[in-house]
Amino acid sequence: MREIRRIIPLLMLVILALSVMGAGCIGEKAKNIPSETPSAESKVQTTGAPRLVEIVDSVGRHVEVPARVDRVLAIGCTLREVVYLLRNEAPEKVVGIELREAAEVRKENGKWPAGLDLPYIAAYPELRKKPVIRSGKTLNLEMIVELKPDVIFAGPWNIDEADEIQQKTGIPVVIVYVGSVGTKEQLEKYYESLRLMGRILGKENRAEELINTMNSYLADLDGRTKDIPDKKKPTVYIAGRAYYGTHGVLGTDPHWPPFEWVHAKNVASGVDDESKGINVDKEALVQWNPDVIFVSAVSLPFVLSDIENDPAYGPLKEKPLYSVMPYCWFAYNKEVGIVDAYFVGKILYPEEFADIDMDKKAEEIFVEFLGEQGRDAYRILKERFHAFEKITPGDGE
């Protein structure tokens, strides 16, 4: 009996000790088992991986991108919009560029742009020092992996190719619309992409600011010109509109935005329903016989050569010609399109635009899109292109 009495306390101590140890194990396990299913964010915080968010790009692809983006790659002419959104942060966050953005001089007799031909590069020339990841259609996937961008923006890109780039590099590829904005539908599509890019880059407010800025200028242009009677409007034509390089006098745009925004009577407007680069028939142009011809400055030598050397264009030799900055030059320079519209307005409707000083207005617009560096960019481009001048046949190179 005495033995049993001695054993019972010992057994109780052992049981108590085991209970305490067991409670400790259960407590540790409880720390690793959440009471409810964790959110995606809490899962990521546990593992230390970057938080991802799902977006739908401009062609309907569902893509997961990091919630925070610090390193950006922009291909297919999307760097322009990245700079619009980031402005002076762009040189730090952009990790690579395309060959034409880096080029020192124009290639093939001026057919392709050089870096400083482009407003966003003229504003931030340090971007030209970035690694070149694309030349023509050749994309250096190995270099892209080495540069470790958080996201790749792609312009007019084939869906299968975008998926392939994403699969081979492990980096999300987001297709966006950065094309022409000559119709209402194109403009709205562009605004959607600006908002998407702003969201991804953490620049939602800047995207809305850009959209409001564009709408403000377009409203001003519309207000100055919408009530001008058609009989007081001269017919107009844009010659040498660049697409896939420079063009002669037949290269044009049926809905060139600067014409659309000032309600100009574009003689080629019936050729297509969208703003795009096209070549029209020589006979059609001669028959249209526009009153005023505007010429994209990058194509000026080729346009003048056509008019001077082809007898069929005889009637055009007597028409006033004016040079404008290239709205389409390695895709679409939206600030240039707006500046060109004010110049077109001053030429066609001098009374309605009498208060506009072209240089001051152009600098203001460039600053709105590119930051303070835009002021110098405008001056560089105006001198480089000899833009906003009246041209006399015989001045061609």
Helix content: 40-55%
Ends distance: 123 Å
Number of helices: 16
CATH superfamily of the largest domain: Nitrogenase molybdenum iron protein domain
User: What is the fold-level CATH name, i.e. the topology of the largest domain?
Assistant: Rossmann fold
Q: Could you tell me the radius of gyration in angstroms? A: 30 Å
**Quaternary structure type:** single chain
Mean pLDDT: 88
Your description of this structure?
By secondary structure, the protein is of the alpha/beta class. The chain has two domains: 167 residues, 3-Layer(aba) Sandwich (Rossmann fold); 163 residues, Rossmann fold (3-Layer(aba) Sandwich). The chain is 46% helix and 14% strand. It has 16 helices and 15 strands. The strands form four sheets. A six-stranded mixed sheet has the order 6-5-4-3-7-8. The chain has a five-stranded mixed sheet with strand order 11-9-13-14-15, covered by helices on one side. Strands 1-2 form a two-stranded antiparallel ribbon. Helix 8 links the parallel strand 7 and strand 8. Helix 3 crosses helix 9, helix 10 runs parallel beside helix 14 and helix 14 packs antiparallel against helix 15. It is globular and about 65 Å long. The N and C termini lie far apart (123 Å).
